[in-house]
Specification:
Helix content is 68%, strand content 0%. By secondary structure, the chain is mostly helical. The chain has a domain of 54 residues. Helix 2 packs antiparallel against helix 3. It is found in: Membrane. This is Dolichyl-diphosphooligosaccharide-protein glycosyltransferase subunit OST5.
């Protein structure tokens, strides 16, 4: 007798997970995102207008967040 969970497990065994960013290029992607974040945060810090928050601040924080996770994974610390 097969359970639904066992059927899903067996179906998943035939198609392994393939990440969108390969393990070999995680360091490059992470370093690039952190560099972009540093640049955008620097430009954001130079200007004092509120319009820059959606144009510079949000992309900088997203690039820093994803770049930090990619760099952590690239050096072998998994979160």
């Amino acid at each position: 007798m097969s359970t639904p969970l066992l059927a899903v497990w067996e179906a998943a065994a035939s198609s392994p997970y393939q990440p969108s960013i390969s393990k070999d290029s995680q360091f490059t992607v992470g370093a690039f995102l952190l560099l972009i974040a540093l640049f955008l945060a620097g430009v954001f810090g130079l200007n004092l207008k509120f319009i820059n928050l959606p144009l510079l601040g949000v992309p900088a924080s997203l690039a820093f967040g994803f770049g930090a996770v990619y760099m952590i994974c690239a050096v072998g610390v998994y979160v």
